[in-house]
Amino acid sequence: MAEKEEAMDKDLADEILEEEAENEAEKQLEEEQQEPEEETAEAEETAKKSFFKKKEKKKDKKDIQIEELTDRLKRTMAEFDNFRKRTEKEKSAMFDMGAKTIVEKILPIVDNFERGLAAVPEENKEDAFVDGMDKVYKQLMKTLEEAGVKPIEAVGKEFDPNFHNAVMHVENEELGENVVAAEFQKGYTYKETVVRHSMVQVAN
Questions:
Q1: Which residue stretches of the chain are H helix?
Q2: Is 153 exposed, middle or buried (0-12, 13-18, 19+ CB in 10 A)?
Q3: pLDDT of amino acid 49
């Protein structure tokens, strides 16, 4: 009986060993079949990467050219814009210079109008000729004002060398020190630029 059981145990052990050997063989066969597939997939991935890398290199070269051309275009546009602004500024400066020269030549005429009207006796103020000259003078002053020409305020104002030209000094206790007491010739500005300084008398 013991011999029979021992034989059965041996047969069972042999079957288990045989089954394990078959399983190991199947597993090895599956691994061998998978390895080529993995190698093929890896090779395909490497080829794809190489292809796209070459493509990226070509694309990068084009991108560099595009960036260079874009940068050159931007610089050209900026230079043109600066040139346009500089030209406009120069034209404006030349126009203002020319206008200032014309204003300087007109001011003596304004002075003569003012002297002539101031010399008219009071009884002749209503004369048609005097009234006509007064209207012409007012029209001239209005036109100059619209063009940007303005008279400089002087009498009663503190002396400012930027606008006033002191030709006389006077002792006057009623006025503060360094205050304009009288104006001998009216000064004018053109667009905030002095065309002619006011000729004034300053109190000490």
A1: 2-118, 128-146
A2: middle
A3: 65
Domain that holds residue 196: 149-204
Domains of the chain: total:
1
The two structure tokens encoding residue 114: 């003012």
pLDDT, tens digit, for every residue of 138-154? Answer: 999 999 999 999 999 99
Better-predicted residue by pLDDT, 165 or 24: 165
CB atoms within 10 A of CB 179: 17
- Exposure pattern of 55-75 as b/e (b: 16+ CB <10 Å)? eeeeeeeeeeeeeeeeeeeee
pLDDT digits (tens, 9 = 90+) for 35-69: 455 556 666 677 666 655 555 555 578 888 888 89
User: Does residue 114 form part of some domain?
Assistant: no
Residue 197 placed within a domain: yes
Which whole number is the average pLDDT over 130-143?
94
CA 38/CA 31 separation, integer angstroms:
10
What SS3 state is found at 169?
strand
Residue with tokens 């997939």: 41
Q: What is d(CA 81, CA 88) in angstroms, rounded to the nearest whole number?
A: 11
pLDDT value at 177 more than 70: yes
Residue partners of 28: CB distance under 8 A and separation at least 6: none
